Amino acid sequence: MPFRHLLLKVHSRCNLACRYCYVYEHVDQSWRDRPKVMAHEVIDVAARRFAEHAVTWDLPRVAVTFHGGEPLLAGPDVLEYAIGAMRDAMPAGVAVRFTVQTNGILLTEPILDLFRRHQVRVGVSLDGGRQANDRERRFANGRGSYHQVAAGLAALRAEKYRHLYGGLLCTVDVRNDPVEVYEDLLAFAPPRIDLLLPHGNWTQPPPARIPGDPRTPYADWLIPIFDRWYDAPRRETDIRLFSAIMSLLLGGPSDTESVGLTPIDFVIVETDGAIEQGDALKTAAEGEAATGCNVLDHRFDDILGLPGIRARQTGLAGLGATCRACPLVQVCGGGHYAHRYEATSGFTNPSVYCADLQRLIRHIHGRMSEDLHRLTADTSTGTNS
Hints:
This protein is an alpha/beta fold. 34% of the residues lie in helices and 14% in strands.
């Protein structure tokens, strides 16, 4: 299966020092040896390689996300150059969609004007209100980032830029009140919210998750948000994880690697041109994200046969025996690939969040089933609810 989505690491450093960061705060420290900013030469070659890949696989459209580190640290000139290089490299008939994932601190009017010219969608990372966000999302001196991010979001939500607003990304912290976090995020009127489980695995467990413990702290945190979101009298926003689980329960696809068996379709290029798998693998072990390939010498097709890529593109066959035998496997999909890691057995395990995912999926299934039964009963009796 081809890669339809390229994450371009235009800057390898960050202006925040979030304590849970999977790039800087875990076992893989390869960022230290990489250039801070992606050179024009690397951008040009990455663009040609991606165009070549699109032609080989006859793709009508592709996506490019500017990522980091903090991609806005690269500056408007680098970003504009990268947008132009990607557009120039793609043959006629291949549409390119651009997005950027940022912490929001540098969302100034000049940057937003650039994004408006090129129709770049903007996703912003925020973990809730001031207290919730500033637990972890801090500057290196310990100062919280909430007010600067809120200012960036205010600029993004101005009338002339509002159509660029892609949504908010929130890392779950079970110390925070879940409904309060959700409603604080809603105050910024996001079109979509991504609720991300903090990266961890069986060898390096995430906070509040004790391997083998039957308790489900993350499901206990997510379920009140689901109920608040599901029971709202009108659709306030989309929550990607919940929508994906609901789609999967109805036999549809997933648009997130966190659940489901939908094959992955993204690849990463670092500032030095290294081609890598998902960043979350940097939380497993040194070098797990590496492919040994670089856009200067290799095509994207050269990594399609790697075990890690194959495992995430072959569906059920890429899972361990425990997951394959689970009745929820079509929905859970084994969870996020990085969360299955254990130092002696690799990635053949269920997710370290297995118990949480099972409880969350069953809760959502229960809520949907109740409504479907009620709807069926109302239809059969000719009543309206």
